[in-house]
Amino acid sequence: MMMNCVKLGVLAGLLLGSLALPAQKSYKFRVQLTDKQSTTYSLDKPEEFLSERAVQRRVRQGIAVDSTDLPVCREYIEKLEACGARFPSASKWNNTVLMQAEDENMAGRFRQLSFVKEVKKVWTSPDSIPARDKDRKKQVRNKWNRTDDFYGAGAEQIRMHHGDSLHLAGFKGKGMQIAVIDAGFFNVDEIRFFRKMNLLGVRDFVNPASDIYEEHSHGLSVLSCMATNEPHIMVGTAPEAAYWLLRSEDNDTEQPVEEDNWAAAIEFADSVGVDVVNTSLGYYAFDDSTFNYRYRDLDGRTSLMALSAAHAADKGMLVVCSAGNSGAGTWKKITPPADAENVITVGAIDRKGMNATFSSLGYTADGRVKPDVMAVGLRSSVVGTDGGVSFANGTSFASPIFCGLATCLWQACPWLSVRQLIEVIHQSGDRAQYPDNIFGYGVSDVWKAYHLGLKLKDKK
Q1: For all residues of the chain together, what is the average pLDDT?
Q2: Active site residue 135
Q3: N or C: less crowded end of the chain, CB within 10 Å?
Q4: Catalytic residue among 326, 396, 428, 444
Protein backbone atom coordinates (compact mmCIF):
# COMPACT_ATOMS: atom_id res chain seq x y z
CA MET A 1 0.00 0.00 0.00
CA MET A 2 1.32 3.42 -0.86
CA MET A 3 3.01 5.88 1.45
CA ASN A 4 3.86 3.43 4.19
CA CYS A 5 0.58 1.56 4.03
CA VAL A 6 -1.60 4.52 4.85
CA LYS A 7 -3.80 5.24 1.85
CA LEU A 8 -3.90 9.00 1.69
CA GLY A 9 -7.06 10.64 0.44
CA VAL A 10 -6.95 12.83 -2.62
CA LEU A 11 -6.73 16.57 -2.14
CA ALA A 12 -9.94 18.38 -1.34
CA GLY A 13 -9.76 20.22 -4.61
CA LEU A 14 -9.64 16.92 -6.45
CA LEU A 15 -12.64 15.59 -4.58
CA LEU A 16 -14.65 18.54 -5.81
CA GLY A 17 -13.67 17.85 -9.40
CA SER A 18 -15.72 15.87 -11.88
CA LEU A 19 -14.96 12.24 -12.61
CA ALA A 20 -13.46 11.36 -15.96
CA LEU A 21 -14.53 7.93 -17.21
CA PRO A 22 -11.98 5.89 -19.18
CA ALA A 23 -13.07 5.16 -22.74
CA GLN A 24 -12.29 1.44 -22.53
CA LYS A 25 -11.08 -1.06 -19.98
CA SER A 26 -7.34 -1.49 -20.13
CA TYR A 27 -4.82 -3.85 -18.53
CA LYS A 28 -1.09 -3.88 -17.85
CA PHE A 29 1.05 -6.99 -17.70
CA ARG A 30 4.51 -7.55 -16.22
CA VAL A 31 6.34 -9.77 -18.69
CA GLN A 32 9.45 -11.54 -17.38
CA LEU A 33 11.93 -12.21 -20.17
CA THR A 34 14.33 -15.12 -20.38
CA ASP A 35 17.48 -13.35 -21.59
CA LYS A 36 19.08 -10.38 -23.34
CA GLN A 37 20.65 -12.31 -26.19
CA SER A 38 19.23 -10.01 -28.88
CA THR A 39 20.60 -6.81 -27.37
CA THR A 40 22.17 -4.26 -29.68
CA TYR A 41 24.18 -2.76 -26.81
CA SER A 42 27.63 -3.69 -25.59
CA LEU A 43 29.25 -3.61 -22.16
CA ASP A 44 32.25 -2.06 -23.87
CA LYS A 45 30.19 1.03 -24.68
CA PRO A 46 28.31 1.94 -21.49
CA GLU A 47 28.04 5.54 -22.62
CA GLU A 48 25.26 4.41 -24.98
CA PHE A 49 22.92 3.61 -22.06
CA LEU A 50 24.43 5.34 -19.02
CA SER A 51 25.42 8.96 -18.44
CA GLU A 52 29.05 9.83 -17.77
CA ARG A 53 28.10 10.65 -14.19
CA ALA A 54 26.53 7.20 -13.74
CA VAL A 55 29.63 5.51 -15.12
CA GLN A 56 31.94 7.54 -12.90
CA ARG A 57 29.89 6.67 -9.81
CA ARG A 58 30.56 3.02 -10.57
CA VAL A 59 34.26 3.67 -11.22
CA ARG A 60 34.70 5.45 -7.87
CA GLN A 61 33.28 2.46 -6.03
CA GLY A 62 35.00 -0.22 -8.09
CA ILE A 63 31.73 -1.43 -9.65
CA ALA A 64 31.85 -3.01 -13.08
CA VAL A 65 29.15 -2.44 -15.69
CA ASP A 66 27.46 -5.83 -16.16
CA SER A 67 24.62 -7.50 -18.05
CA THR A 68 21.97 -6.11 -15.71
CA ASP A 69 22.92 -2.64 -16.97
CA LEU A 70 22.08 -3.58 -20.56
CA PRO A 71 18.64 -2.33 -21.69
CA VAL A 72 15.89 -4.86 -22.33
CA CYS A 73 16.08 -6.23 -25.89
CA ARG A 74 14.20 -3.99 -28.29
CA GLU A 75 13.50 -6.95 -30.57
CA TYR A 76 11.55 -8.66 -27.80
CA ILE A 77 9.54 -5.51 -27.09
CA GLU A 78 8.60 -5.21 -30.76
CA LYS A 79 7.37 -8.80 -30.81
CA LEU A 80 5.26 -8.14 -27.72
CA GLU A 81 3.85 -5.04 -29.40
CA ALA A 82 3.02 -7.12 -32.46
CA CYS A 83 0.61 -9.11 -30.29
CA GLY A 84 -1.51 -5.96 -30.04
CA ALA A 85 -0.09 -4.29 -26.94
CA ARG A 86 1.67 -1.02 -26.07
CA PHE A 87 4.99 -0.61 -24.25
CA PRO A 88 4.95 1.84 -21.30
CA SER A 89 8.22 0.90 -19.53
CA ALA A 90 10.76 -1.78 -18.67
CA SER A 91 13.17 -2.81 -15.93
CA LYS A 92 16.57 -3.77 -17.27
CA TRP A 93 17.81 -4.85 -13.83
CA ASN A 94 14.95 -7.35 -13.49
CA ASN A 95 14.63 -7.99 -17.26
CA THR A 96 10.91 -7.28 -17.20
CA VAL A 97 8.69 -5.36 -19.60
CA LEU A 98 5.42 -3.62 -18.79
CA MET A 99 2.87 -4.02 -21.59
CA GLN A 100 -0.60 -2.47 -21.86
CA ALA A 101 -3.58 -3.87 -23.79
CA GLU A 102 -7.37 -3.73 -23.94
CA ASP A 103 -7.59 -7.54 -24.09
CA GLU A 104 -7.51 -9.14 -20.63
CA ASN A 105 -6.47 -12.42 -22.25
CA MET A 106 -3.34 -10.91 -23.77
CA ALA A 107 -1.22 -12.79 -21.21
CA GLY A 108 -1.92 -16.03 -23.10
CA ARG A 109 -0.51 -14.60 -26.33
CA PHE A 110 2.59 -13.36 -24.54
CA ARG A 111 3.24 -16.77 -23.00
CA GLN A 112 3.42 -18.36 -26.45
CA LEU A 113 6.57 -16.36 -27.25
CA SER A 114 9.81 -18.31 -26.70
CA PHE A 115 11.59 -15.47 -24.88
CA VAL A 116 8.80 -15.00 -22.30
CA LYS A 117 9.40 -16.66 -18.94
CA GLU A 118 6.40 -15.45 -16.95
CA VAL A 119 3.45 -13.05 -17.25
CA LYS A 120 1.53 -11.35 -14.44
CA LYS A 121 -1.41 -8.95 -14.76
CA VAL A 122 -0.49 -5.99 -12.55
CA TRP A 123 -3.09 -3.32 -13.38
CA THR A 124 -6.72 -2.98 -14.38
CA SER A 125 -7.92 0.49 -15.31
CA PRO A 126 -10.27 1.97 -12.68
CA ASP A 127 -13.91 2.75 -13.45
CA SER A 128 -13.32 6.44 -12.78
CA ILE A 129 -10.44 8.82 -12.11
CA PRO A 130 -10.82 12.03 -10.07
CA ALA A 131 -10.17 15.18 -12.07
CA ARG A 132 -7.12 17.18 -11.06
CA ASP A 133 -7.43 20.57 -9.42
CA LYS A 134 -6.86 23.16 -12.14
CA ASP A 135 -7.21 25.95 -9.57
CA ARG A 136 -4.45 24.54 -7.37
CA LYS A 137 -2.31 27.69 -7.54
CA LYS A 138 -4.99 29.66 -5.71
CA GLN A 139 -4.17 27.68 -2.56
CA VAL A 140 -0.67 29.15 -2.39
CA ARG A 141 -0.24 31.99 0.13
CA ASN A 142 3.52 31.77 0.76
CA LYS A 143 3.13 33.28 4.23
CA TRP A 144 6.03 32.69 6.60
CA ASN A 145 6.88 33.34 10.23
CA ARG A 146 10.51 34.07 11.09
CA THR A 147 12.24 32.55 14.13
CA ASP A 148 15.46 33.36 15.97
CA ASP A 149 16.94 29.99 15.03
CA PHE A 150 18.84 29.76 11.74
CA TYR A 151 17.13 26.47 10.87
CA GLY A 152 13.68 27.79 11.70
CA ALA A 153 11.07 25.04 11.86
CA GLY A 154 13.64 22.42 10.84
CA ALA A 155 15.98 22.98 13.79
CA GLU A 156 15.26 20.05 16.10
CA GLN A 157 14.99 17.42 13.39
CA ILE A 158 18.47 18.40 12.15
CA ARG A 159 20.29 18.96 15.45
CA MET A 160 19.10 15.63 16.85
CA HIS A 161 21.60 14.00 14.45
CA HIS A 162 24.25 16.76 14.79
CA GLY A 163 23.53 17.59 11.18
CA ASP A 164 24.22 21.23 12.01
CA SER A 165 27.87 20.29 12.62
CA LEU A 166 28.11 18.83 9.12
CA HIS A 167 26.50 21.95 7.67
CA LEU A 168 28.84 24.27 9.58
CA ALA A 169 31.77 22.32 8.16
CA GLY A 170 30.51 23.21 4.69
CA PHE A 171 28.67 20.00 3.80
CA LYS A 172 25.14 20.92 2.75
CA GLY A 173 24.78 18.58 -0.22
CA LYS A 174 26.41 20.71 -2.91
CA GLY A 175 27.48 18.59 -5.89
CA MET A 176 25.24 15.70 -4.84
CA GLN A 177 22.11 14.58 -6.68
CA ILE A 178 19.00 13.25 -4.93
CA ALA A 179 16.04 11.62 -6.65
CA VAL A 180 12.72 11.80 -4.81
CA ILE A 181 10.40 9.01 -5.97
CA ASP A 182 6.89 9.76 -4.78
CA ALA A 183 3.21 10.29 -5.60
CA GLY A 184 3.29 13.84 -6.92
CA PHE A 185 4.65 17.27 -6.06
CA PHE A 186 1.56 19.41 -5.73
CA ASN A 187 2.26 23.15 -6.13
CA VAL A 188 6.05 22.80 -5.84
CA ASP A 189 6.32 25.01 -8.93
CA GLU A 190 4.46 27.84 -7.15
CA ILE A 191 5.85 27.69 -3.62
CA ARG A 192 8.57 30.19 -2.69
CA PHE A 193 10.41 27.67 -0.53
CA PHE A 194 11.61 25.90 -3.67
CA ARG A 195 12.73 28.87 -5.75
CA LYS A 196 16.33 28.39 -4.62
CA MET A 197 16.23 24.63 -5.20
CA ASN A 198 18.53 23.20 -7.84
CA LEU A 199 15.94 21.27 -9.84
CA LEU A 200 17.45 18.96 -12.46
CA GLY A 201 14.18 17.70 -13.90
CA VAL A 202 10.89 15.89 -13.41
CA ARG A 203 9.53 12.65 -14.83
CA ASP A 204 6.17 10.89 -14.42
CA PHE A 205 6.28 7.09 -14.68
CA VAL A 206 2.54 6.70 -14.00
CA ASN A 207 1.24 8.97 -16.74
CA PRO A 208 3.91 10.77 -18.80
CA ALA A 209 1.25 13.21 -20.05
CA SER A 210 0.31 14.45 -16.58
CA ASP A 211 1.43 17.60 -14.79
CA ILE A 212 3.49 16.34 -11.88
CA TYR A 213 2.62 19.53 -9.97
CA GLU A 214 -1.12 18.73 -10.14
CA GLU A 215 -0.70 15.31 -8.57
CA HIS A 216 -0.60 14.35 -4.89
CA SER A 217 0.92 16.62 -2.22
CA HIS A 218 2.81 13.83 -0.45
CA GLY A 219 5.96 14.40 -2.48
CA LEU A 220 5.79 18.14 -1.75
CA SER A 221 6.01 17.48 1.99
CA VAL A 222 8.72 14.84 1.57
CA LEU A 223 10.85 17.10 -0.62
CA SER A 224 10.52 20.01 1.80
CA CYS A 225 12.30 18.09 4.56
CA MET A 226 15.48 18.18 2.47
CA ALA A 227 15.34 20.97 -0.09
CA THR A 228 14.06 24.08 1.73
CA ASN A 229 16.67 26.79 2.25
CA GLU A 230 15.12 29.82 3.92
CA PRO A 231 17.17 30.77 7.02
CA HIS A 232 15.12 31.52 10.15
CA ILE A 233 12.00 30.08 8.50
CA MET A 234 12.84 26.52 7.43
CA VAL A 235 16.11 24.96 6.29
CA GLY A 236 16.13 21.36 5.14
CA THR A 237 18.72 18.66 5.70
CA ALA A 238 20.33 18.93 2.22
CA PRO A 239 19.61 22.51 1.12
CA GLU A 240 22.35 22.70 -1.52
CA ALA A 241 21.81 19.33 -3.22
CA ALA A 242 20.33 19.02 -6.72
CA TYR A 243 17.01 17.21 -7.15
CA TRP A 244 15.14 15.00 -9.60
CA LEU A 245 11.39 14.69 -8.93
CA LEU A 246 10.02 11.35 -10.09
CA ARG A 247 6.44 10.09 -9.79
CA SER A 248 5.77 6.35 -9.49
CA GLU A 249 2.76 6.18 -7.16
CA ASP A 250 -0.77 6.29 -8.60
CA ASN A 251 -2.96 7.42 -5.75
CA ASP A 252 -6.16 6.56 -7.64
CA THR A 253 -5.69 2.81 -7.18
CA GLU A 254 -3.44 0.41 -5.27
CA GLN A 255 -2.09 -2.16 -7.72
CA PRO A 256 1.19 -4.05 -8.26
CA VAL A 257 2.00 -1.96 -11.35
CA GLU A 258 3.25 0.73 -8.99
CA GLU A 259 6.25 -1.47 -8.29
CA ASP A 260 6.96 -1.54 -12.03
CA ASN A 261 6.67 2.25 -12.13
CA TRP A 262 9.07 2.50 -9.20
CA ALA A 263 11.57 0.14 -10.82
CA ALA A 264 11.53 2.27 -13.98
CA ALA A 265 11.97 5.43 -11.91
CA ILE A 266 14.95 4.23 -9.93
CA GLU A 267 16.65 2.90 -13.06
CA PHE A 268 16.16 6.30 -14.66
CA ALA A 269 17.75 7.86 -11.56
CA ASP A 270 20.72 5.53 -11.94
CA SER A 271 21.10 6.28 -15.64
CA VAL A 272 21.34 10.05 -15.13
CA GLY A 273 23.87 9.67 -12.32
CA VAL A 274 21.87 10.25 -9.15
CA ASP A 275 23.78 9.58 -5.90
CA VAL A 276 20.96 9.12 -3.37
CA VAL A 277 17.30 8.13 -3.68
CA ASN A 278 14.57 8.85 -1.17
CA THR A 279 11.39 6.87 -1.40
CA SER A 280 8.61 7.28 1.15
CA LEU A 281 6.48 4.63 -0.49
CA GLY A 282 5.78 1.07 0.57
CA TYR A 283 3.40 -1.71 -0.42
CA TYR A 284 2.08 -4.81 1.31
CA ALA A 285 -1.69 -4.71 0.55
CA PHE A 286 -3.44 -4.08 -2.76
CA ASP A 287 -6.97 -3.53 -4.07
CA ASP A 288 -6.92 -7.18 -5.10
CA SER A 289 -5.90 -8.99 -1.92
CA THR A 290 -4.54 -11.99 -3.84
CA PHE A 291 -1.50 -9.81 -4.57
CA ASN A 292 -0.86 -9.02 -0.88
CA TYR A 293 2.54 -9.78 0.62
CA ARG A 294 3.04 -12.02 3.66
CA TYR A 295 5.54 -11.74 6.49
CA ARG A 296 7.69 -14.42 4.94
CA ASP A 297 7.97 -12.30 1.79
CA LEU A 298 9.97 -9.66 3.68
CA ASP A 299 13.25 -11.29 2.69
CA GLY A 300 14.54 -8.61 0.31
CA ARG A 301 14.20 -10.99 -2.64
CA THR A 302 10.45 -11.33 -3.22
CA SER A 303 8.96 -7.94 -4.13
CA LEU A 304 10.02 -6.21 -7.33
CA MET A 305 10.72 -3.03 -5.37
CA ALA A 306 13.02 -4.73 -2.88
CA LEU A 307 14.91 -6.41 -5.70
CA SER A 308 15.26 -3.09 -7.52
CA ALA A 309 16.39 -1.26 -4.38
CA ALA A 310 19.09 -3.88 -3.80
CA HIS A 311 20.17 -3.54 -7.44
CA ALA A 312 20.50 0.22 -6.89
CA ALA A 313 22.97 -0.42 -4.08
CA ASP A 314 24.89 -2.73 -6.40
CA LYS A 315 25.13 0.20 -8.83
CA GLY A 316 26.56 2.50 -6.17
CA MET A 317 23.42 4.45 -5.20
CA LEU A 318 22.24 4.90 -1.63
CA VAL A 319 18.52 4.22 -1.21
CA VAL A 320 16.84 5.68 1.87
CA CYS A 321 13.27 4.52 2.47
CA SER A 322 10.52 4.81 5.06
CA ALA A 323 9.85 1.86 7.35
CA GLY A 324 6.05 2.13 7.14
CA ASN A 325 3.25 3.30 9.41
CA SER A 326 1.80 -0.05 10.48
CA GLY A 327 3.34 -0.45 13.93
CA ALA A 328 0.02 0.04 15.72
CA GLY A 329 -2.03 -1.94 13.21
CA THR A 330 -2.52 -5.61 12.43
CA TRP A 331 0.37 -5.84 9.93
CA LYS A 332 2.95 -4.12 12.21
CA LYS A 333 5.92 -4.95 10.01
CA ILE A 334 8.03 -2.90 7.62
CA THR A 335 6.79 -2.77 4.05
CA PRO A 336 8.71 -3.44 0.83
CA PRO A 337 11.13 -2.01 -0.23
CA ALA A 338 12.12 -1.43 3.41
CA ASP A 339 13.24 -5.09 3.59
CA ALA A 340 15.76 -4.69 0.76
CA GLU A 341 19.43 -5.45 1.29
CA ASN A 342 21.92 -2.58 1.58
CA VAL A 343 19.39 0.23 1.93
CA ILE A 344 18.76 2.57 4.87
CA THR A 345 15.28 2.03 6.33
CA VAL A 346 14.10 4.85 8.59
CA GLY A 347 11.60 4.58 11.43
CA ALA A 348 9.86 7.44 13.26
CA ILE A 349 10.45 9.02 16.66
CA ASP A 350 9.26 12.22 18.28
CA ARG A 351 11.50 15.17 19.11
CA LYS A 352 12.36 13.64 22.49
CA GLY A 353 13.59 10.41 20.93
CA MET A 354 10.57 8.27 21.81
CA ASN A 355 9.41 5.92 19.08
CA ALA A 356 6.14 6.74 17.34
CA THR A 357 3.66 3.93 17.95
CA PHE A 358 2.77 3.79 14.26
CA SER A 359 6.37 3.21 13.14
CA SER A 360 6.66 -0.21 11.52
CA LEU A 361 8.80 -2.93 13.04
CA GLY A 362 11.48 -5.36 11.88
CA TYR A 363 13.14 -7.75 11.59
CA THR A 364 13.25 -8.93 7.98
CA ALA A 365 12.12 -12.49 7.31
CA ASP A 366 15.77 -13.54 7.01
CA GLY A 367 16.72 -11.95 10.33
CA ARG A 368 18.36 -8.65 9.32
CA VAL A 369 18.00 -5.61 11.58
CA LYS A 370 15.31 -3.22 10.42
CA PRO A 371 14.65 -0.37 10.68
CA ASP A 372 18.24 0.84 10.35
CA VAL A 373 17.89 4.24 12.04
CA MET A 374 15.29 6.61 13.43
CA ALA A 375 14.43 10.24 12.69
CA VAL A 376 11.65 12.67 13.57
CA GLY A 377 8.38 11.41 12.10
CA LEU A 378 5.94 12.74 14.70
CA ARG A 379 5.11 16.38 14.02
CA SER A 380 7.79 16.62 11.39
CA SER A 381 8.21 20.13 10.02
CA VAL A 382 7.15 20.17 6.36
CA VAL A 383 5.82 22.59 3.77
CA GLY A 384 2.07 22.58 3.17
CA THR A 385 0.15 23.06 -0.08
CA ASP A 386 -0.33 26.77 0.77
CA GLY A 387 3.43 27.32 0.83
CA GLY A 388 3.64 27.77 4.59
CA VAL A 389 5.25 25.66 7.30
CA SER A 390 3.09 22.79 8.47
CA PHE A 391 3.50 19.57 10.45
CA ALA A 392 2.96 15.95 9.48
CA ASN A 393 3.18 12.47 10.99
CA GLY A 394 4.70 9.43 9.34
CA THR A 395 7.90 7.59 8.56
CA SER A 396 7.36 9.22 5.16
CA PHE A 397 8.97 12.33 6.63
CA ALA A 398 11.51 10.67 8.90
CA SER A 399 13.01 9.15 5.74
CA PRO A 400 13.82 12.38 3.85
CA ILE A 401 14.98 14.11 7.02
CA PHE A 402 17.65 11.45 7.37
CA CYS A 403 18.17 11.07 3.62
CA GLY A 404 19.34 14.67 3.35
CA LEU A 405 21.80 14.19 6.21
CA ALA A 406 23.14 10.98 4.69
CA THR A 407 23.66 12.88 1.44
CA CYS A 408 25.68 15.57 3.20
CA LEU A 409 27.68 12.85 4.96
CA TRP A 410 28.52 11.24 1.62
CA GLN A 411 29.53 14.63 0.23
CA ALA A 412 31.91 14.92 3.18
CA CYS A 413 33.26 11.37 2.66
CA PRO A 414 33.16 10.75 -1.10
CA TRP A 415 35.66 7.89 -0.82
CA LEU A 416 33.07 5.69 0.91
CA SER A 417 31.23 2.98 -1.01
CA VAL A 418 27.50 2.54 -0.43
CA ARG A 419 28.13 -0.33 1.97
CA GLN A 420 30.79 1.61 3.87
CA LEU A 421 28.45 4.59 4.11
CA ILE A 422 25.72 2.40 5.58
CA GLU A 423 28.22 0.87 8.01
CA VAL A 424 29.40 4.21 9.46
CA ILE A 425 25.76 5.28 9.77
CA HIS A 426 25.04 2.10 11.75
CA GLN A 427 28.13 2.54 13.93
CA SER A 428 27.17 6.11 14.78
CA GLY A 429 23.73 5.15 16.07
CA ASP A 430 23.00 5.53 19.77
CA ARG A 431 21.98 1.85 19.91
CA ALA A 432 24.81 0.54 17.76
CA GLN A 433 25.88 -1.97 20.40
CA TYR A 434 22.40 -3.44 20.83
CA PRO A 435 20.24 -2.88 17.74
CA ASP A 436 16.66 -4.14 17.86
CA ASN A 437 13.54 -4.43 15.74
CA ILE A 438 12.00 -1.15 16.97
CA PHE A 439 14.81 1.41 16.85
CA GLY A 440 17.33 -0.49 14.75
CA TYR A 441 20.73 1.12 15.39
CA GLY A 442 18.97 4.12 16.87
CA VAL A 443 19.48 7.82 16.22
CA SER A 444 22.55 8.25 14.06
CA ASP A 445 25.04 11.02 14.86
CA VAL A 446 26.19 12.06 11.39
CA TRP A 447 29.07 14.13 12.79
CA LYS A 448 30.37 11.00 14.50
CA ALA A 449 29.79 9.08 11.28
CA TYR A 450 31.88 11.67 9.44
CA HIS A 451 34.83 11.02 11.74
CA LEU A 452 34.38 7.28 11.33
CA GLY A 453 34.49 7.88 7.60
CA LEU A 454 37.72 9.86 7.94
CA LYS A 455 39.33 6.85 9.59
CA LEU A 456 38.39 4.70 6.62
CA LYS A 457 40.04 7.22 4.32
CA ASP A 458 43.25 6.94 6.31
CA LYS A 459 43.19 3.18 5.77
CA LYS A 460 43.03 3.49 1.98
Answers
A1: 94
A2: no
A3: C
A4: 396
